[in-house]
Specification:
Layout (H helix, E strand, L loop, with lengths): L1 H4 L3 H11 L21 H14 L4 H32 L1
Helix pairs in contact: 3-4
Length: 91
């Protein structure tokens, strides 16, 4: 740190990398369809595949987004099951 304070660029770079690590991911600028329910999820996965095919997304980025889609699908399914159980309990 003393070397960095004295103006040593290499030491300054090392200090900054420890304090503010370089960004490993980039924001994704891909147009995805709106999702209003579980029926729309296949449109979203198709859009991800198309984006990979066009080179807009890497396979790894699409895989990470696909995982989000899967989690969203599970959340929709859970909400639907909860609604059905509540309806059965009121009968």
């Amino acid at each position: 740190m003393e070397l960095a304070l004295e103006g040593n660029i290499a030491a300054l770079r090392l200090c900054l990398e420890r304090l503010i690590p370089p960004r490993k991911e980039r924001p994704l600028a891909v147009r995805l369809p709106d999702i209003s329910g579980a029926a729309d999820l296949p449109k979203l996965t198709a859009a991800l595949l198309a984006a990979v095919g066009k080179g807009e997304l890497t396979a790894g980025e699409a895989s990470a987004l696909s995982s989000l889609v899967s989690n969203h699908g599970k959340a929709l399914e859970l909400a639907e099951l909860e609604k059905r159980v509540a309806a059965l309990e009121t009968k």
